[in-house]
Design goal:
By secondary structure, the protein is of the alpha/beta class. The protein has two domains: 190 residues, 3-Layer(aba) Sandwich (Rossmann fold); 215 residues, FAD/NAD(P)-binding domain (3-Layer(bba) Sandwich). It has 18 helices and 18 strands. The strands form four sheets. Strands 3-2-1-4-18-17-16 form a seven-stranded mixed β-sheet, sandwiched between helices. A hairpin with a 6-residue loop joins strand 11 and strand 12. Helix 1 packs across helix 15, helix 12 crosses helix 13 and helix 17 packs across helix 18. The longest helix is centred in the C-terminal third of the chain and has 16 residues. It starts with a strand and ends with a helix. It binds flavin-adenine dinucleotide. The site of flavin-adenine dinucleotide has 35 residues, from helix 1, helix 2 and helix 8.
Length: 452
């Protein structure tokens, strides 16, 4: 090929940007990249997942931005693949496509009462507090307005984030980039008790210790743990003996179990061996029924038949994210990922020429931001190795896709548009003494991003 290789990356989360980085940070094969995102703004879950009170983690966007700054990389925001342009059409404009569209849906508990009003997915709560343009604002704001007691189900970092955000005082959230209506709604809640429920024990939980520890340092919330929950059975003891993270987590929870009352106005009840079996209520959540579990020889949870009812008016399930199919791409309906071999998309056991995948939609929703760098690099290595055999795009002119989108009335937001949004958010934040305030309204994002 005499021209540069033209690659589309679908999704501008960490894996998409790391893929663009790996493609353009090598010189053996000249590549130009279009990073396409359905949202008018880049960075995926770094913007719409990572907790807004974790400023240093959110600042990863500054590193990611350096990739979008490159001349060989172009951002096309506000373009949804599968709606505004099809997968087949992408092949017309690009020599290869890397799909990095993440895992945006949530997993369900599968228990009675899950669809009652007041039972919500952490995904929806997170979208709302991060200012996602598609947030279910009315649903979340009515769900959190009146409850005094809340159950958060799950023992990963997302459950910890959600618990922390619900338990923090307005002063503890004031410095974040949360939209003002979010800060106002959180300040107006009446929550006094949060129950963080895990099916298994502290030795099986997937928290990271730093995040876990923060729960014990909240200004207005005391943390309560029943000492019986930190008595380790032999299987859990063996885990703690061989895994330093688990050992540290257990140490943190054990220290909490020794704390006496502090007189703080709110309580966080961290409960292990508690499997949710039913959410009770007539038309709204009134309580959750949990079953005490024990750990079997494989570290799994086994019910003991001992039930307990906890009065709560809000249940937030945080039991994992889930990838969704994209029309025109194969999909593994059991693992909820795009089937692939080393990042090459596979259909009926055969690699599809010119199609690649990276990040959460490649390997499932696990791993931290950094995990996606290695993962995206491995996919890019496969693509570059295949480069001599790729079928060239029929229409490689970079302006051709823009013309198609314009003919469909799709106003793509460019990198310059994103920079305008970025500046507007910084100015909005400064007007309130903060570093930044997220603009949550899609029309406003598009208005600012398109300079209209
Ligand atoms: C609530 C939460 C908190 C987290 N906190 C941390 C943390 O503190 N530290 C940490 O290291 N990791 C954290 N993670 C994990 C981290 O965010 C992920 O590892 C990472 O974002 C996955 O990257 P990705 O690019 O695969 O997916 P995503 O970040 O989800 O990016 C996917 C992108 O694809 C776009 N997209 C989707 N469909 C389409 C389509 N059809 N057309 C065009 N674009 C599309 C989306 O808009 C999005 O921008 C957190 C995750 C969650 C869910």
């Amino acid at each position: 090929m005499t021209r540069s290789l033209r690659v589309a990356v679908v999704g501008s989360g960490p894996s998409g940007i790391y893929a663009a980085d790996a493609l353009t940070d090598q010189t053996a094969i000249p590549v130009t990249v279009d990073v396409i995102d359905m949202l008018p703004v880049p960075y995926g879950l770094v913007r719409y997942g990572v907790a807004p009170d974790h400023l240093s983690i959110r600042s990863v966007r500054n590193t990611l931005q350096k990739v979008l700054d490159r001349d060989s990389v172009r951002f096309l925001g506000n373009v949804e693949v599968g709606r505004d342009v099809s997968v087949a059409e992408l092949h017309h404009f690009y020599d290869a496509v890397i799909f990095t569209y993440g895992a945006a849906s949530d997993r369900r508990l599968g228990i009675p009462g899950e669809d009652l009003e007041g039972s919500i997915a952490a995904t929806d709560l997170v979208n709302w507090y991060c200012g996602h343009p598609n947030a279910k604002t009315d649903l979340i704001e009515s769900a959190i307005a009146t409850p005094t007691a809340v159950a958060v189900i799950g023992v990963g970092n997302v459950a910890v984030d959600v618990t922390r955000v619900l338990a923090k005082t307005p002063a503890e959230l004031e410095y974040t980039d949360m939209p003002q209506h979010v800060l106002d709604a959180l300040a107006a809640t009446h929550i006094t008790d949060v129950h963080l429920l895990g099916r298994r024990g502290p030795a099986q939980a997937s928290f990271t210790t730093k995040e876990l520890r923060e729960l014990g340092e909240l200004e207005a919330t005391e943390v309560i743990v029943n000492p019986i929950d930190v008595e380790l059975d032999p299987v859990s003891q063996a885990t703690v003996d061989s895994d330093r993270v688990m050992a540290r987590n257990v140490e943190v929870v054990r220290e909490w179990s020794t704390r006496g009352p502090t007189g703080k106005p709110q309580r966080l009840h961290v409960r292990f061996f508690a499997r949710p079996v039913e959410i009770l209520g007539t038309d709204h959540v009134e309580a959750i029924v949990i079953e005490r579990t024990t750990i079997d020889e494989n570290g799994g949870a086994v019910g003991t038949g001992v039930l307990e009812t906890i009065p709560v008016q809000l249940v937030v399930r945080s039991v994992g994210y889930r990838g969704l199919p994209l029309e025109g791409l194969p999909f593994d309906t059991e693992r909820h990922v795009v089937p692939n071999a080393d990042g090459r998309v596979v259909s009926d056991g055969v690699a599809v020429s010119g199609e690649y995948v990276a990040g959460w939609i490649k390997r499932g929703p696990s791993g931290i931001i950094g995990t996606n760098k290695k993962d995206a690099s491995a996919t890019v290595a496969a693509l570059l190795a295949d480069a001599p055999t790729l079928s060239p795009a029929a229409e490689p002119d970079p302006e051709a896709i823009s013309a198609l989108l314009a003919s469909r009335g799709v106003g793509a937001i460019t990198y310059q548009g994103w920079q305008a949004i970025d500046a507007a958010e910084i100015a909005l934040g400064a007007s309130r003494g903060r570093d930044r305030t997220t603009i949550h309204d899609r029309d406003e994002l598009i208005r600012v991003g398109s300079g209209s």
